[in-house]
């Protein structure tokens, strides 16, 4: 038995183990980012939802009326929403929304305050998938602007009413 | 085996040196990725859209506010915004002061506490 050869073998094994440990550390460190990619996809969907609501939130026309495909025009044209029936946005609004959203699927909800309590209505009632994200936009309308709407409360024209339009978006 | 001239010992010594370099670089690499991801995650999770919504709402409120009734108008808006934000588990409000020349905006969530005073002149806020 050559003791030198045995020592070389042992040292070779020790070197291999050290190198293996180093490579394992390198491999572990590069795995850190992989579970976080789903968040980036969710953020893209959230930004899409926020941008969509911002695009649809437009000021009134020169004649003081709202565009039918704006959030304001959609709210003003809602019928019987407070009792939960016929609470569907107008066709122009739904067409514009579908064009902007493309192949995304969505649910649309409306919230407003009446006598210190929150009322809500599902304008487009679809069941979201588990990876759905939500974005909100707030619309302020005075009582005078709601005159032909189901939300008209009578009384003074200046009284404000704030609506939260919530868009829930997901990939089908 | 006792002498440093033996090739085996030099081999293990160089392996140690190379391994140390690889480990140091990989730790640095991992730290950079972690720092970058955490920074972008924090930025993504900051409720900038909620705060932007409040700012836009302040702008619209000041434009639509009747100057003779600004106090009642401010109270109505304050109550409604607070109620609507409360259902999301956060606090948000708008307080119109000084006849609509100043709007105070507050937003508080579990992670962020934000307050801003917006100055409005002639219905334009900035």
Structure description:
The complex is a heterodimer of chains A (172) and B (126). Chain A folds into 2 domains: 1-32; 35-170, no CATH class. Helices cover 38% and strands 23% of the residues of chain A. Chain A is built from 4 helices and 4 strands; from the N terminus they run ααααββββ. Chain A has helices spanning 3-30, 37-56, 71-76, 91-101, and strands at residues 105-114, 117-124, 133-142, 160-170. Chain A has a 4-stranded antiparallel beta sheet with strand order 2-1-4-3. In chain A, a hairpin with a 2-residue loop joins strand 1 (105-114) and strand 2. In chain A, helix 2 packs antiparallel against helix 4. The N and C termini of chain A lie far apart (71 Å). In chain A, 28% of the residues are buried. The model of chain A has no long low-confidence stretch (mean pLDDT 85). Chain B is an alpha+beta fold and 126 residues long. A 4-stranded antiparallel beta sheet of chain B has the order 1-2-3-4. Chain B has helices at residues 7-45, 48-64, 70-86; strands at 91-97, 102-108, 113-121, 124-125. In chain B, strand 1 (91-97) and strand 2 form a beta hairpin. Chain B folds into 2 domains: 1-45; 48-125. Chain B starts with 6 loop residues before the first helix and ends with a strand. The chains are: A alpha+beta (172), B alpha+beta (126).
């Amino acid at each position: 038995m050559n003791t030198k050869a045995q020592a070389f073998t042992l040292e070779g094994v020790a070197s291999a183990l050290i190198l293996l440990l180093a490579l394992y550390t390198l491999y572990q460190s590069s795995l850190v980012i992989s579970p976080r990619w789903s968040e980036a996809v969710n953020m893209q969907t959230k930004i899409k939802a926020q941008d969509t609501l911002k695009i649809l939130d437009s000021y009134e026309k020169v004649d003081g009326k709202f565009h039918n495909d704006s959030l304001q025009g959609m709210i003003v044209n809602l019928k019987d929403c407070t009792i939960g029936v016929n609470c569907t946005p107008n066709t122009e609004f739904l067409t514009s929304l579908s064009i902007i959203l493309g192949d995304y699927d969505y649910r649309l909800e409306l919230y407003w305050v009446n006598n210190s309590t929150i009322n809500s209505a599902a304008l487009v009632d679809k069941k979201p998938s588990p990876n759905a994200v939500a974005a909100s936009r707030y619309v302020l309308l005075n009582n005078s602007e709601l005159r032909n709407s189901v939300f008209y409360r009578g009384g003074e024209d200046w009284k404000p009413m704030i609506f939260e339009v919530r868009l829930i978006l997901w990939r089908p | 085996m006792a002498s440093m001239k033996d090739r085996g010992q030099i081999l293990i010594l160089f392996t140690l040196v190379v391994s140390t370099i690889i480990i140091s670089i990989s730790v640095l690499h991992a730290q950079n990725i972690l720092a970058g991801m955490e920074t972008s995650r924090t930025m993504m999770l900051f409720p900038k859209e909620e705060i932007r919504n409040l700012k836009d709402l302040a702008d619209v409120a000041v434009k639509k506010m009747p100057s003779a009734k600004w106090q009642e108008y401010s109270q109505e808006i304050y109550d409604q915004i607070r109620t609507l934000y409360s259902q999301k588990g956060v606090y948000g409000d708008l307080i119109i002061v000084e006849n609509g020349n100043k709007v105070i905006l507050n937003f508080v969530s579990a992670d962020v506490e934000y307050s801003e005073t917006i100055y409005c002149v002639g219905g334009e806020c900035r």
